[in-house]
Design goal:
Structural class: alpha/beta
Number of helices: 6
CATH topology: Rossmann fold
Strand order of the largest sheet: 1-6-5-4-2-3
CATH superfamily: Response regulator
CATH class: Alpha Beta
């Protein structure tokens, strides 16, 4: 995980508002499952992502690097220009320093590979929101929900 900017005014007592932008529906569903009520909107392409940020003014947007209509690079630059307070997490299947550096230069705060674990994503969000403590509202809620789901699922035997 690469991080460029720390938030100056942490907001540990409220849940972040997050927009997810990815053309791959399964990834959007996975993030919605992980982040639950923190999701305030979603987009299927870069242009919709920019529009959602203009409309909803979320704390964080997750951007796929490769999207139709407008890619993550263009969307991040636009979002950064009119909503500097919105934190940007860029997800990509592309590995290497070149893509990571391009994302950070476009205004991303964090670059994550799409294979990042749920824990890594939660840590990045908590870090951006200034709620790094284990007892943060988002992390506590998500982890307790995941624990409850594991308890209620029947064991699979072969």
């Amino acid at each position: 995980m690469e991080r460029r900017v720390q938030q100056a005014n942490p907001a540990p007592s409220r849940k972040p508002r997050i927009v997810i932008a990815d053309d791959f529906e399964t990834l959007r569903r996975g993030l919605k499952s992980l982040l639950g009520p923190a999701i305030c909107g979603e987009a299927e392409n870069g242009q919709q992502a920019v529009e959602k940020v203009m409309q909803l003014r979320p704390d964080i947007i997750t951007l796929d690097w490769t999207m139709p209509v407008m890619n993550g690079f263009e969307a991040a630059k636009m979002i950064r220009s009119f909503a500097p307070e919105t934190k940007i997490i860029v997800f990509s299947l592309h590995e290497g320093n070149r893509v990571r550096e391009e994302a950070l230069q476009a205004g991303a705060d964090v670059f994550l590979h799409k294979t990042a674990t749920g824990g890594t994503i939660l840590k990045a969000i908590a870090d951006l929101m200034g709620i790094i403590r284990d007892g943060s509202p988002l992390v506590s809620e998500v982890l307790s929900t995941a624990t409850e789901q594991k308890k209620t699922k029947p064991a699979v035997t072969r």
